[in-house]
Amino acid sequence: MSANRWLVTGNYFTSYRDEQKIFSTHLDRTIFSVFLLCLFVWPLLFKLSSRNMLVVDTILIAIVAVMGLNLLTGFAGLISIGHAAFVGVGAYTIASIIRVIGDEHLLITHAWPLVILIAGLVGAVFGAFVGLPALRLRHLYLLMATLSFQIIFQWVINFSAFFNQGQTISVGRVFWITGKIGRKQHYFFWYYVILVVIIFLGLGVRNILRTRYGRSLIAVRDNDRAADAMGMHPGFTKVYAFALSGFLAGIAGALHAYLYRGVGFESFTLHHSIVYLAMAIVGGMGTLNGSFWGPIAIQMLELQVENLAEEAGHFLPSNMNLSTALRPLTFGLVIVLFLMFEPRGIANWWRMVRSYVKLWPFRY
Amino acid sequence: MSYFFQLVVSGIVVGSIYALSGLGFVLIYKSSRVLNVAHGQIIASGCFITYSLTVWVGIPIYISFLASMVITFFLAMSVERIFLRRLIGEPIISVIMVTIGLMSIIDGLIYLTPFGSENYSFPEFFPATPISVGEVSISWTQLVGVIITFVLIAGFSWFFKKSTIGISMRAVSDDQLASMSIGISVPKVFGLAWAAAGLTAAAAGGIIGNITGLNFDTLQSFGIIVFPVVILGGLDSILGAVVAGILMGLIQQFAAGYLDGSWGLNGTGEVMPYILLLIILLFKPHGLFGIHEIERV
User: Fold this and answer.
1) Domains of chain B
2) What distance in Å separates residue B274's CA from the closest CA in chain A?
């Protein structure tokens, strides 16, 4: 294996083991570690206001959720328009624990990593249940299963007194070794928690994708009959994909509940499912780093849209609610335009830059 | 007992509208295998066009009803031409996601109009006194709506069985390559399928608008409920869509009529179709009349 990946123009791997490596050179590993270090250090150097920190945290949570969606839609080839409901399952797991034992119970305030894990597992169970039709059916029908799960979820939350009819259920402040996390450090603290979660989950997903299971996921997406003939069970593979995606979504939901210190119905509607889908598409389906680019791009876009709506609000009649109109419009446009002109998403730009550098000064 | 019959009547009224909207959905699926997630938005825009032509422009209702059908005919055709034509040959998954994006776009466009935030209702066109048979009553609007629905469904069935275009649409749904080789323009058929779906959607929208008033959320929910309807009927069967639509209307009315209020349940009518959808997907995914494709994996 040649030393510099940037200058190599072909595939020089001599074994499958080499090709499956996450870091092919020491340099890669070093760069990655330095990058992670930067992610840990920068909040100490630049003091962001709570409002901006909240935006960063929201992006990170969206990254966790979109990783799950990307696993399902990008790698397993199953469209889900109920992903916000799976995220909601995670958040409402915490909410139901709180409704039973109260929001200042030790389990919620001290054992929160355990609670987050439980939320993920509950999400996985729900994901597997919704994915059960996959044992018999192909993707078109599964779209409907996820849609109906979204609607049933909204109904259950809206009409049951246990979940406070969809009104906010508040979550208590958590404790760390240093004591109670106050209002000032809240977003700061959760930045680090979510960052650690993302690093673990990201490495986990990356590793799953190079195992036998991950490769069978891609095989089933590309041709399920061929995969069947080669001894994989396409149905179970898809159900596992649903469970895994539900797990990631559940963790995202739990983090969402803790970050906003409350669980409300309005964060988990069909509109949010479409936003998650837009993130996955914009980032690049079927690539892991796509799940990082998509949320960043879409959240930035959302901020811009909000600013624009606010600006335009000065000139337009006040009864016209521009921001509710512009949001679906931009997300829809982004989905459609990316699918029409850049179906491989932002992650593909990186690939294009790399191949440009490699082939320079020649081109196709 | 009269309560039961009242539920049956209103179930048939709602169900026939479901049948009409399901028909448009099946038309697109049958010809191009695309699940049109944006169908509810097309229904809503048909309804709003009818309203603005009738009330704001002042055209008689029957003309504006027809005019809105013509407008959405061309609207849906141009949607197909602009967004979906260039995706022919792409994996079906990305085509479906384009329709999800379209749904979002049309949502946004409707929120820009006054219809997005405010509720309107059509003026009364028919006598306000309902027709009563015994203790069961049905309003004139509902009766006329049901009649129009069945006329349209009959018309489309005839169109598919007998007319050349209908037969070519069926041919394309059967085998695209074979129909291309005998000189059918497949893209044109796709466009026509979308146009016909837009036409039925506008009709459904106009009728819903007259019966329930113009509320964007209600109209959208009529689009989403198409999914359980067509799954129950079988995705590619027009007869299935009609039967399942009426069945679904009855189920919804019975659920709302008998389950709501007992055991602290509420709004069961809205969720029952989706619970049913999950059950059907698990046990009888091809629905009542769907072709039993061997898609088992």
Assistant:
1) 2-122+133-283 (1.10.3470)
2) 5
